[in-house]
Amino acid sequence: MRIKCPHCGERSLDEFSYYGDATLRRPEVNDQDANLLAKFTDYVYLRDNPAGQHQELWQHQFGCRAWLVVTRDTNSHLMTEVTAAAQKGEAA
Ligand SMILES: [Zn+2]
Questions:
Q1: How far is the CA of 83 from the centre of ligand 1 (A)?
Q2: Residue 5 CA, ligand 1 centroid: distance in Å
Q3: Distance 34 CA to ligand 1 centre (A)
Q4: What is the tens place of the pLDDT at every residue in 45-63?
Q5: How sure is the predictor about 91, in pLDDT bands with cuts at 50, 70 and 90?
Q6: Does domain 2-27+41-88 have CATH number 3.40.50.300?
Q7: What average pLDDT does the structure give for the chain?
Q8: Is the pLDDT assigned to residue 92 strictly greater than 50?
Q9: Domain-by-domain residue ranges, the chain?
C-alpha cells in the first residue's frame, strides 16, 4: 500500500504512522453534564469499525512529518483522498 502525501508525493506505507479515526471530537467539558464520564469513556476507548469509506489520521513520520487525513475504503483499502490535516482543521 502506498500513500500520496500532498507535500512529498506517493510514498511507501512504511514512512507513515496510523493514528486512528480522523472524525473523533473531544467532548465539551461541562461539570453539570451527568453523562460526561460516559462521553469521555466513549471518546477514549470505544471505536467504530466501519465497512466502507472512512477518514483516518496518518502522519508522514519518516518524511515531511505532516499530519494527513486519508479517506480510505476499509473493504478495498482504496484511498480516494489524502489532504493535509491542517486544511481540514484536524491537527497542525
Ligand atoms: Zn510528506
A1: 11
A2: 5
A3: 43
A4: 999 899 999 999 999 999 9
A5: low
A6: no
A7: 92
A8: no
A9: 2-27+41-88
Instruction: Write out the three cell numbers for 53.
Output: 469509506
Helix, strand, or coil here: 12? strand
Mean pLDDT of all residues in 13-18: 97
Residue-wise pLDDT for 22-37, tens only, equals 999 999 998 899 999 9
Residue 73: phi and psi, rounded to 5, are -85, 120
Q: Which residues contact 10 (CB under 8 A, 6 or more apart)?
A: 2, 3, 4
Tell me, what DSSP letter sits at residue 13? G
Q: Which residue has the cell 475504503?
A: 73
Q: HEC string of 17-72? A: EEEEECCCCCCCCCCCCCCHHHHHHHHHHCCCCCCCEEEEEEECCCCCCCEEEEEE
pLDDT value of residue 90: 56
